[in-house]
């Protein structure tokens, strides 16, 4: 059975950065890229906030660059999903969805988190063309324009107030008649003059135009849950802020995680509760969820893997 010093589960900025550092440390890492090689950034058209790209870069191109860099130093990249892992003893026995198994002396989990969406067909259509789940990532593109944010918790309130500093107007749409956010965040929202609260409302449809591969969102049709009355708002950006779901199903009952499913790592570390298993990127970060912070923790995980192996010797 194949044995590797360092197995990386998942790709994206965290996984590929971990691979770069692990390969340069001669750990000869093997990375299984998962169902979405490159992670969430492969669904983003332009990335403007990652250092080193003064003119911006397409998300898929950036991920391809990171992958090539990892492979340059000897990383073995493979298509496939890890579907099982025995965390009871080292080396860890890992099962792949094609039926193969391998042993790993250390494991870096970089499976990320998946943004929750409303489930509208039109929402799916305009992803990358006006629909986003990250105001910090994409808000800049809507400077001086009208946008909408959907949600009622702290994340929605934070996204709305962040966008209010950039855009002309923010519609904050919530299906209830009060926000679930903390009192401090509610006060910030209410004191922001260019945020309009849209209470008791759900989104029926997102509308826009299509020309070939170019999609341009220009509005949303809303429905008041109490009266059934429909209303159209003119917007160019639509931000969904109803939460994220960490991709940690296969680790339940095996690794410590919080009530939502984010992996818990030790302070100032990427180490999980199982020695030799590390977590990097959005799978353990519910606060920042940025490419650059994911890459940083990927670096940390690789360094910690190398040190762990050195200590075992």
Provide an overview of this structure:
- There is one protein chain.
- The protein is of the alpha/beta class.
- It has seven helices and 19 strands.
- It has two domains: 182 residues, 3-Layer(bba) Sandwich (FAD/NAD(P)-binding domain), CATH 3.50.50.60; 124 residues, FAD/NAD(P)-binding domain (3-Layer(bba) Sandwich), CATH 3.50.50.
- Strands 1, 2, 5, 6, 7, 8 and 19 form a seven-stranded mixed β-sheet that branches.
- The longest helix is centred in the last third of the chain and has 22 residues.
- It is elongated and about 65 Å long.
- 42% of the residues are buried.
CATH topology of the largest domain: FAD/NAD(P)-binding domain
Strand proportion, as a percent range, falls in 25-35%
Going by CATH, the architecture of the largest domain would be: 3-Layer(bba) Sandwich
Unreliable stretches (pLDDT < 50, length at least 5) are none
Mean pLDDT comes to 92
> Gyration radius, to the nearest Å?
21 Å
Helix content range: 10-25%
Please tell me the total number of domains. Answer: 2
Query: Number of DSSP helices?
Result: 7
Q: What is the 3D shape?
A: elongated
- Report the biggest beta sheet as strand number plus sense, adding barrel if it closes: 7 strands, mixed
At the first level of CATH, the class of the largest domain is Alpha Beta
Q: How far from one another are the termini? A: 22 Å
Q: State the oligomer.
A: single chain
Number of strands: 19
> What is the CATH homology-level superfamily of the largest domain?
FAD/NAD(P)-binding domain
Structural class: alpha/beta
Order of helices and strands: EHEEEHEEEEEHEHEHEHEEEEEEEH
